[in-house]
């Protein structure tokens, strides 16, 4: 069976087991050219395993992977030139300076002399590290190390880049800097597979999103298409103290769902604003205290909750 020609990356029914653990359980992915494609899922969902499988670093137990319609051939020079990886674990040498790191990674791809110098300096400017280029990476902040890690992954100007949680563990300002870098790269025509468990990141950056859970893609589409899955419902979230059963609210919420998750009551219902007072009255009449109440429109977090019954961020 061949692959369709319109995708840069196509994964079909990919299975990967580690002993008793099935990390990928029939995962499917189709990534078109020139987009930031978000792979969104909680810890342990299989995001990194899928990336490593696409890179040919994991031998898969089932399924097929195609790059530009050709069966994956990780040993080929063409593949190595075409693809880049920004790994989840920092892959930089802490004892080397920023520029020495980039020159090292560039040299692995055959860059040398003034080409290597100018590419390394261009990336140091691009990532805002030029002033600190001669300092050892170990003196960098977490956000600066992440930016150097990103620069190292794209030193050879790959057409397709996998970024595995490139903002994990950094402050909001550094996250914003990385978003800008990703957007700039995408505007220059790079195809980016971006994994995250932050739904706001996926909403901001990614035109196409696939949601992965337990090794399987459980939904895919644009942000709007995914939110459509749960319809026009509002999300009411209440923190309560005291015992309550969901039956207590079923009469008021006759068109949606009532769930208790981690001590919070999550209600999805149409016209939530109009029902909120009644819901709160019903709760207090059962001798429960309400310590916080919020109401919002659905987002990717809600979609995930709806599909899996659990929270994305854990
Ligand atoms: N080399 C390995 N050996 C054994 N089990 C593994 C290995 N790599 C991954 N796993 C298991 O496979 C599952 C998927 O892991 P994976 O790292 O792909 O998840 P993830 O979505 O990247 O999670 P995170 O958000 O925490 O990075 C997990 O249960 C994990 O423990
Ligand atoms: Mg991971």
CATH structural class of the largest domain? Alpha Beta
Overall form: elongated
Strand content: 25-35%
Query: What structural category do the secondary elements indicate?
Result: alpha/beta
CATH superfamily of the largest domain: P-loop containing nucleotide triphosphate hydrolases
Name the bound molecules: adenosine-5'-triphosphate, magnesium ion
Main beta-sheet annotation: 6 strands, mixed
> Could you give the distance between the termini?
39 Å
User: Given the structure, what is the number of helices?
Assistant: 10
CATH architecture of the largest domain: 3-Layer(aba) Sandwich
Account of the protein in words:
The protein has 314 residues and is of the alpha/beta class. The chain folds into 2 domains: 221 residues, P-loop containing nucleotide triphosphate hydrolases (Rossmann fold, 3-Layer(aba) Sandwich); 78 residues, YebC, transcriptional regulation domain (Alpha-Beta Plaits). The chain is built from 10 helices and 14 strands. The chain has a 6-stranded mixed sheet with strand order 6-7-8-3-9-10, with helices on both faces. Strands 2-1-4-5 form a 4-stranded antiparallel sheet, covered by helices on one side. The model has no long low-confidence stretch (mean pLDDT 91). The site of magnesium ion has 4 residues, from α1.
